[in-house]
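pasting input
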Amino acid sequence: MKKIILLFTIFLTFSNLILKSENINEIKIFKNIRCLICQGQSIADSNSDFAQTIKLVVKDQILEGKSEKEIYNFLIDKYGEWIVYKPTTNPQNFILWLTPYAILFIGGFIILVIVKKREKH
Amino acid sequence: MNIKFNYIILFGIPGFILLIFFLGLNTNNKYDTRELVGNQINNFKLIDIYENKTITNLDLKENNFTLINFWASWCSPCRAEHKYLMDLKSQTDLRIVGINFKDKEINAKNYLKELNNPYYFLAKDINGKISIKFGIYGIPESILVDRNLKIIKKYIGPINEKDFNEIIKIVTKL
């Protein structure tokens, strides 16, 4: 009897975890998809017709077993890179990804030069 | 050296910020999918409203060009473009496939009874999912494809006289 209770508890815990992870995954995707007809909203925040339909399509694709990346690629193929908030890393976006690090590096270098000069004086 | 460096910081950074503002303010921030041409339409299967027959991507390969038009009876700009669709049907051998978006079948049929039917094939998209597969985000929208199902042109919003002339030019070029 104890074993059955233990197994049942394990089953409940894991089934809950699986369901939770699926929900998180879905909401994470919604939050990364831009609502093209709204002002600065993701489809997670929007109740527009477009957002609702995209949600249905994303849910369908999750049920079909498609990965997060495959879903994004499908939407990028249809609507362009603009549909996702987090741009993908590809040769066209290379500067976009590199610029913040470059600015950080240059900024650090300028500060270093100023500090060194002050030390000399 | 020191003065040069200070000048670079004094003018370089504000200059860079101004340049970013200038470029940002001169960019059109209203995004649309008009530029997304050259992609291929994926495999699809649509059901006709009238005859209950199905149409697939293979059926579009029979003709040189096909215009896939997304519309609804409740959409007033669709009425404005309807006369151009009728003219395209009568003046060219372009096939027009209509996709009736989130509409009641009876309303769609009455609309076409009133304004005439320009469609070679008319499919229904009850929940809008089919339109998402074509990259549609509002109606009316139209996609001009060639026989290889490559997107030649996208028309966001109602087709106007300029678009009409452009379509005529493209489809009669062959």
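fyi The helical segments of chain B are 2-25, 76-91, 105-115, 129-133, 161-171.
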